[in-house]
Amino acid sequence: MAPAVLLVTLFLLAPFVWTVHRSFFGDSRTTPFSWFDNYTLFASDPALSRSVQNTLMWVVGTVVLPFVLGLAIACMTDASRFSRLARLCVVLPYALSGSAVAVVWNFMLTTDGAVNQVLDTFGLGSLAQGWLLTWPGNTIVMILANAWQATGVAVILFLVGLQSIPPETIEAASLDGATGWQRFRHVVLPQLRPVSIIVIGMSLVNGLKSFDLIWVLTQGGPGRATETLAVSMYNETFLELRPGAGAAIAVVLTVIVLAASWVYLRRQLDVKGV
Amino acid sequence: MSASGRTSSAGVPLARRRFLATVAAGAAAVTAAGCARGASTSAQPGTTSLSNDNATWDDGYRKAGLELEKITGYSLRPLSNPSVTSYQQVVQMTLETSKASDLVKWASGYQLKRLARAGGLTDLSRVWQRYADKGWVRGASRGAVSYRGKAFGIPLYESYYVLFYSKPVFKRLGLSEPRTWDELLHCAEVLKRNKITPFLASQVGGWPAIEWFQELVSKVDPLFYQQLVAGKASYTDDPARQAMDIWQDFNRKGWMTAPDFDQARGPGALKEGTVGMFLHGTWQAAGMSAAGMEPGVDYGACILPTVRPSTPKSVIAESGVFVVPSRASSHQAAMANVGAWLDPSVQRVWSDFLQDSSANPRVRAGNPVVAGLQRDIARNRRLPLVRYWEASPPSLIQGNSSDLGGFMAGQTSPATTLRRMQERADSEWAAWKRDEA
């Protein structure tokens, strides 16, 4: 136990405490104590307001899309003929790094990229646009790109959940005259609850800390329009050279992630009586 | 199994313990190796390590290093980190440690001032003076490498911001190199009519967004540009507004590439004839060669004409520098190499590799296009202007580059963009001056 406590203290708690401490100091050369000045940036800096908006969009997108798509794909491929191939196709992107995924999507989404070229080819040139240039479209396409990758792990988890459902329960429902939808809604879905909790919890945290895909695709631009809190934290600290502001964003982000996870898991696990 | 045939209860934990011990030992070894001084920056006899943010220059450094070795006994060992953003972080962090490289490529101007202000750099004033005595540096450039009177950088190269253009395309369309603003507009119109995007403009990577801004403001009024970057004029003043209006007009006419066009594709686009003109530093000449383009045959270059004929002629100049960390692993070797870097024999090799201007004014560029530009700058006595990226405090430039990127993507109007830039200028200049005080 002791080494684990020591490592957690050394590598997690100590940096966090230092970050909280740093967030109360200014970014001028003498780094004066500045109370909550760095935190007031959330009210005064439009780039940070946009960053909060984007983070919320990411959270919604990364929770809803992988959950819905993952569940649908898992259910549809669980017993189908080409299930293994279909599953492989969906799961494969999950094996790629976020940066690699971003490079592929960059090739597709730039103004002279593959998507616009395909649209042109099919006479739909009027739909072609700078997918990564205008807000909120650029944030939405990045969320979709992220869902393309993140759905894989949701599929795996839901498949495990589906395979752990006793077939007798479904057979019993059939004998009682339940339709396919009713069997799914009242028999399968409730039994997938533990897996769903994990999928949603993971997606929630991933959405809040999304960074790599955004950084490679747009670096938070153009004009800081696609920043999330994680990107803003990096931008303020390392590019704008304001470590105090960056620390304040890091603290706020950490509090949000911890609070969201705690509230969500406590509520879900309490219901199950765990 | 024991000799008696019973399963030993101690056997399994022992094996597990041994396994865990092996894993722990392996992890400790990996950690120790990771924490040890990296072989890359440790002192190696006969060489000086060189941190560099442009991997395509590694070969040039090695070639120049062979010439340096003849003079100092030390060659160059480039260590590249091609991401400018992460490069800057790594350099700033390693300057505080004993793992600093012997030589570090850095930007001049305020980027260098900020690094020097944080401490950790060697005063190179004596080296500079020796170069000045020999006439191997341009006297005017000392200000761009100095902080509080001391020189902390030795010029690495001298580049100019110019319009590269495709000679075959211009020839096919009956165009000639634009020498006046009207000729430039005519070229753009003809190119556009022939389904060729006249100008490359990009904000990919952040900093390229400054290129058209600095160029247009300086070609509207170079003296205003000097005042603006020094914090003595406002971004909302008329010349800046005029420059932004021109830029917006070019955008509306479809004369610019999309803002997400990657500059790295510039030489290829020029060669293919999909883009007519590419505004960039003359250091891009090496990229043109890499794309198989011959200077003077496949591409030419000129300096953007002034908006009005009566406007003083100017050129945006960029000079990277070598700095020597005071805690460099091989400090003596590093000092020897910066002391010989501008030697004409070294610069001949370096300039030929880079196909760009040498920082030593006595070394003529080997690339005929760049040599022609050097003659043009001298003949017209063009006012050298510090590139925007280095001309004001870094936090101001970084924020303003983001704003310009937003403008390029059509998020903000010229007036809004300039207002935001001025608001940032007010606060960042105040912060800079406060820190200096």
Structure description:
The complex is a heterodimer of chains A (274) and B (437). Chain A is mainly alpha-helical and 274 residues long. Chain A has one domain: Orthogonal Bundle (MetI-like fold). Helix content of chain A is 73%, strand content 0%. Chain A is globular, with a radius of gyration of 22 Å. The mean pLDDT of chain A is 89. By secondary structure, chain B is an alpha/beta fold. Chain B has two domains: 154 residues, 3-Layer(aba) Sandwich (D-Maltodextrin-Binding Protein, domain 2), CATH 3.40.190; 210 residues, Periplasmic binding protein-like II (D-Maltodextrin-Binding Protein, domain 2, 3-Layer(aba) Sandwich), CATH 3.40.190.10. Chain B contains 18 helices and 13 strands. In chain B, strands 7, 8, 9, 10, 11 and 13 form a six-stranded mixed beta sheet that branches. In chain B, strands 2-1-3-12-6 form a five-stranded mixed beta sheet. A two-stranded antiparallel ribbon of chain B has the order 4-5. In chain B, α2 crosses α13, α2 runs antiparallel to α14 and α8 crosses α10. Chain B starts with 10 loop residues before the first helix and ends with a helix. The N terminus of chain B is likely disordered. Chains A and B meet through loops of A and α3, α17 and α18 of B.
